TrEMBL record:
Residues 1-21 are annotated as: Disordered. The keyword Transmembrane does not apply. Specifically dimethylates two adjacent adenosines (A1518 and A1519) in the loop of a conserved hairpin near the 3'-end of 16S rRNA in the 30S particle. May play a critical role in biogenesis of 30S subunits. This is Ribosomal RNA small subunit methyltransferase A. The keyword Transferase applies. Residues 59-233 form the Ribosomal RNA adenine methylase transferase N-terminal domain. The gene is rsmA. It comes from Actinocorallia herbida. It is an enzyme of class 2 (transferase). Belongs to the class I-like SAM-binding methyltransferase superfamily. rRNA adenine N(6)-methyltransferase family. RsmA subfamily. Its EC number is 2.1.1.182. Pfam families: RrnaAD (PF00398). SMART domains: rADc (SM00650). GO terms for cellular component: cytosol.
Length: 305
């Protein structure tokens, strides 16, 4: 799927539409279903929790297709909300473990699954909690992350789950368009930064399409992007992940400065920063935005204090 892909479904959904029943055994949620569910639960979507619910069955189908998940996948879904994406995932995969922070939504979801996908409810489990803080999950280890993420915490959630769950081999997340570009950016581009390099420690990320704001209720102020990722081995290094991430944070905290200046307090002094950079075969007058993850790992190895 190309960057500017506009799938046939990427049009304004009919506001009154019900999602209808799919042959797969799960009914998908349309705009009218979402409003009915929200009214029944007295849910008023909050910005604080990034609650923008997908009201377009075409969009959730598109997400599931782009995720390339199958019958052997155990999916972790973050922020299932009222269940739009959950219901599209269930017929396709072995199991969905959904982590939801809102207690009202977490409590209501099993009932929605039972009502809309009666034959598939045994594949589903909901965990009430904060996806940025969970330390363990029930059941078999997840192989894929598929989520329409709460936008304000999208990057920390993805990084936390990649660190916590080595079983996670791939993922497809819907995020704010600008965040999607950052996650998938390559060295040398203006938007390359901390999310791009930290993501590259764990996985190869790429843009997998765009989604307009009209497929959500309420509609957010920004458009969205689909980002796909595939796990890869971190660079071979004697430095720990924390040590490498400390260099990345220092380099981008003052991204307009040369690395010699930006890494001065991390190294102990500008001269020590220069020594570490030279030992790592990195030009001390370069800026962080030019370096890939392997260069950051080499620099971390050469800190002298
Ligand atoms: C963008 S909505 C997506 C809802 C649903 N998946 C959909 O596509 O309609 C984000 C969801 O994440 C939940 N959420 C927000 N912060 C969270 C966190 N830290 N951990 C888990 N869920 C969170 C919100 O309550 C909300 O249900």
């Amino acid at each position: 799927m190309g960057e500017n892909d506009t799938a046939p479904e990427d049009k304004a959904p009919d506001d009154a539409a019900h999602g209808g029943t799919a042959e797969s055994g799960a009914a998908l949620l349309g705009a009218a279903d979402i409003r009915e569910l929200a009214a029944a639960l007295d849910v008023r979507p909050t910005k604080q929790l990034g609650q923008n619910f997908v009201i377009d069955p075409g969009t959730v189908r598109r997400i599931v297709r782009a995720a390339e998940v199958g019958p052997s996948d155990v999916v972790i879904e973050v922020g299932p909300g009222l269940g739009s994406l959950t219901l599209a995932l269930l017929p396709e995969v072995a199991r969905v473990i959904a982590v939801e922070l809102d207690p009202v939504l977490a409590k209501a979801l099993p009932e929605t699954v039972e009502a809309k996908a009666p034959g598939l409810a045994d594949r589903f489990e909901v965990v009430h909690g904060d996806a940025m803080r969970i330390a363990e999950l029930p059941g078999p280890p997840p192989t894929a992350l598929v989520a329409n993420l709460p936008y304000n915490v999208a990057v920390p959630v993805v990084l936390h789950l990649l660190e916590l769950l080595p079983s996670l081999r791939k993922g497809l997340v819907m995020v704010q368009a600008e965040v999607g570009e950052r996650l998938a950016a390559a060295p040398g581009s203006k938007i390359y930064g901390v999310p791009s390099v930290k993501m590259a420690w764990y996985a190869e990320a790429r843009r997998a399409g765009s989604v307009g704001r009209h497929v959500f209720w309420p509609a957010p102020n920004v458009d969205s992007a689909l980002v796909a990722f595939t796990r890869r081995e971190p660079p071979a290094t004697v430095a720990t992940r924390q040590q490498v991430f400390a260099v990345i944070d220092a380099a981008f905290a003052q991204r307009r400065k040369t690395l010699r200046a930006a890494l001065a307090s991390w190294a102990g002094s500008p001269a020590m920063a220069e020594a570490a950079l030279r030992a790592a075969d990195v030009d001390p007058t370069a800026r962080g935005e030019m370096l890939d993850i392997t260069a950051f790992a080499r620099i971390a190895e050469h800190r002298m204090v």
